[in-house]
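Table 4 source record.
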Amino acid sequence: MIRSMTGYGQGSFEAPGLKVTVEIRSVNNRFADLKLRLPDDLVPFEPELRRTVLGTVKRGRVELDLRIERLDRRGLTLSLNREVVESALAAWKILRDEYGLHGEWDIHSMMRVPGVLETARPEGGLDDVERDAVDRALASALSSLDAERRREGGVLRDDLLARIERMRTTTASIRTLASSVPATLHKRLVDRVGQLVTQVSLDPVRVAQEAAFLADRADITEEMVRLDGHLAQARTLLEDAGGDPVGKRLDFLVQEIHRETNTITSKSVDLEISRHALDLKADAEKIREQIQNLE
């Protein structure tokens, strides 16, 4: 299954006296880049949580927000953070004395300062039941995220397969046109030489040699074979990825497709072949843009 790098997932789980909520957002990135916002109780478990996330997300920038809400308030104490209070008062005095800003500073103003009051947690951190709640909430959020990434990946996959099939049709048209290039070059050479030297008979052997030389320079057989191979490999990756990330491999294939289409364009002596080659380049560019979203 193809996955997009963009998605959102949410999960929650409740244990006795505890509710855990997890939100995960992922966007495009060349590598796996994780940013975890965790409560203090879970900081020691951050490496383990990272490994769990990387088990689902192989590539992309991921932001995870994990919150723990204590439902049972028994045993919790509320305390005044004196350092925050003193810092807030000092800032207010600077605004008044140095900047000439006046206004009332009362208990309501102080209580709006974040961190003035703190809830003291019981010592000992999370027990096994609470830790299990964290794992279950995270698993639920990752499952939701993966489903969203799979859904969007399926949409991208269908679009990419349609573009690749259109490119295969275009290459078939180019191959048909290319088969008539030698005869066209021969006729063009005879007509041009005939216009220049009307009084001299043409040597058919020499004309054939020159035409063969021009046809060899315009031959795109090798480029077409490689292009067909790249398109077939891209289609195989999209149809049978097996759950593995395909974005980087497809990006490399598109670079090779661009290289072959550029060579076909430079060798082309036929206007229709040039037009078809430009169509290939346009589709390849669209594919390149789309695969930047794939894991």
